[in-house]
Inverse folding.
């Protein structure tokens, strides 16, 4: 255990080691209380106190949003809570992101992912949670929103040099559009270069295998695990 002490030019001395946990705890609490303003304020306080922005995301926000996901799956909270927690996470990340240095971004960047909900489908809550978790885990994520066509997915992925296309679908009627994304990747000769991973309520591992997806995740945690594996074994 060591203590980090910052001495400012005006003589102010700050013991960051002991304060750090307090700032991280404030961030966690704001997410667990679904508190958008609280999360923004906690992030501002942490950044002005000099808390490491990467730590703030990885050790403050990420575990909290993971816990929110678990509580939802255990039926302990309702959907609006997940939405508010996700909004709170967005608000905090907006404050924290500019404080991450270019070097840190490069050092911790695991890869680039383009994410969206497939054509015909406007469900976005799960996709937003996955986006947050991927960002928290060190991915650069470009969110194309909802109702995204196969062509748009692939065009953007090519533009930004993405490693991964992540497709979300919440309806059995829109699941076939995931296959179109995979076919478009193949048509453009990008198979193996851009990996496609799929997920969402009705999507199963069997379905992912049937359509030839490179990866499948049942929740946001698995999405991070799969995305990490896929970028590690990229051709
Ligand atoms: C909220 C909701 C809505 C909201 C969406 C609001 C929004 N901004 O997103 C509104 C009211 C707009 C809506 C509309 C509709 N809905 Co709706 N909706 C739901 C509901 C209640 C919750 C979905 C949700 O957000 N879950 C919470 C999130 C956190 O979970 P998740 O999305 O599954 O995501 C997790 C995982 O799946 C995974 N994941 C998600 N995406 C990805 C992607 C990748 C790559 C990976 C690895 C993992 C991953 O990680 C996430 C986090 O753990 C579901 C019922 C249900 N129980 O699922 C119905 C449901 C999905 N809806 C349904 C329907 C039919 C519709 C409508 C057609 C209704 C209508 N008649 O108008 C329209 C759709 C219009 C359209 N074109 O899309 C049906 C679909 C039936 C089916 N089997 O196809 C459902 C299942 C309800 C039902 N039982 O009938 N809906």
């Amino acid at each position: 255990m060591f203590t980090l002490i910052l001495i400012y030019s005006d003589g102010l001395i700050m013991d960051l080691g002991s304060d750090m946990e307090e700032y991280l705890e404030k961030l966690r609490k704001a997410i667990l209380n679904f508190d958008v303003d609280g999360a923004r304020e906690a992030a501002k306080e942490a950044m002005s106190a000099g808390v490491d922005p990467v730590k703030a995301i990885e050790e403050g926000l990420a575990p909290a949003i993971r816990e929110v996901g678990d509580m939802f799956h255990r039926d302990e909270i309702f959907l609006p809570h997940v939405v508010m927690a996700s909004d709170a996470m967005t608000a905090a990340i907006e404050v924290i992101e500019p404080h991450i240095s270019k070097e840190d971004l490069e050092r911790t960047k695991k890869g680039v992912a383009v994410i969206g909900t497939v054509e015909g489908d406007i469900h976005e809550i799960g996709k937003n949670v996955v986006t947050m978790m991927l960002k928290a885990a060190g991915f650069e994520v470009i969110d194309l929103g909802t109702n995204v066509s196969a062509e748009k997915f692939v065009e953007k992925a090519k533009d930004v040099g993405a490693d991964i296309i992540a497709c979300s679908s919440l309806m059995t009627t829109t699941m076939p559009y995931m296959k179109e994304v995979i076919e478009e990747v193949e048509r453009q000769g990008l198979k193996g270069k851009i990996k496609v991973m799929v997920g969402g309520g009705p999507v199963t591992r069997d379905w992912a295998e049937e359509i030839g997806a490179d990866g499948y995740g049942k929740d946001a945690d698995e999405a991070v695990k799969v995305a990490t594996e896929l970028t590690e074994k990229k051709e």
Summary: The first strand starts at residue 5 and ends at 7. The CA atoms of residues 217 and 223 lie 5 Å apart.
